[in-house]
């Protein structure tokens, strides 16, 4: 990955611990332990079910901003010992970005969705200056590079209600609203389900 500008340190000077990986979390195509080949990077691309329809029809995920284990993210989670924890933290960041997409598309089903893909290092630009873990891809990601999909459980009403409320408050949370941030943070307690790429039509 291309180098990025340095990220300001935390005000308290302390490193942060990555989210604890739940015991039931499936590491397939979600963990650095499963690993990318040398010279490749695993990226997490936020999306929505509405956008996913176009992805399936076109056979590619649109260019744009995704998330990966970047130098600044490693520094931020310096106390974390496993690559799996870092990947899990990146998935959380991508899921939060999916909330922003849901806010921008009121017609989209209230379910967070994240595509996971492996790309060559040179195809990804680190943008830690925008947000820790942020990367940019300047070309559509071919469907053949996608190895997994993470999405909320569409049969769980509690999850759907929580995601809908979080999407309604994500902009306010990004602007520093404490109550809104609490609402958005609360939805992270609901784990995204794992699906193979070929299962996408069943989700639409």
Automatic annotation (TrEMBL):
<dbReference type="InterPro" id="IPR054206">
    <property type="entry name" value="DUF6912"/>
</dbReference>
<feature type="region of interest" description="Disordered">
    <location>
        <begin position="1"/>
        <end position="29"/>
    </location>
</feature>
<protein>
    <submittedName>
        <fullName>Uncharacterized protein</fullName>
    </submittedName>
</protein>
<feature type="compositionally biased region" description="Pro residues">
    <location>
        <begin position="1"/>
        <end position="11"/>
    </location>
</feature>
<dbReference type="Pfam" id="PF21853">
    <property type="entry name" value="DUF6912"/>
</dbReference>
């Amino acid at each position: 990955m291309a180098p990025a500008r340095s990220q300001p340190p935390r005000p308290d000077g302390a490193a942060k611990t990555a989210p604890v990986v739940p015991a039931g979390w499936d590491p397939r195509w979600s963990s650095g332990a499963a690993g990318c080949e040398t010279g490749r990077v695993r990226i997490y691309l936020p999306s929505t079910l509405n956008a996913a329809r176009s992805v399936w029809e076109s056979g590619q995920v649109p260019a744009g901003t995704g998330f990966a284990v970047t130098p600044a993210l490693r520094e931020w989670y310096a106390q974390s010992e496993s690559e799996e924890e870092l990947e899990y933290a990146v998935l959380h960041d991508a899921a939060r970005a999916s909330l922003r997409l849901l806010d921008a598309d009121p017609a989209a089903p209230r379910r967070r969705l994240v595509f996971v893909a492996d790309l060559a290092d040179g195809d990804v630009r680190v943008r830690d200056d925008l947000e820790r873990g942020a990367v940019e891809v300047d070309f559509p990601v071919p469907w053949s590079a996608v190895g997994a999909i993470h999405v909320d459980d569409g049969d769980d009403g509690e999850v759907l209600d929580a995601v809908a409320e979080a999407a309604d408050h994500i902009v306010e949370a990004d602007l520093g609203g404490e109550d809104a941030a609490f609402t958005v943070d609360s939805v992270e307690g609901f784990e995204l389900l794992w699906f193979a790429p070929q299962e996408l039509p069943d989700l639409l």
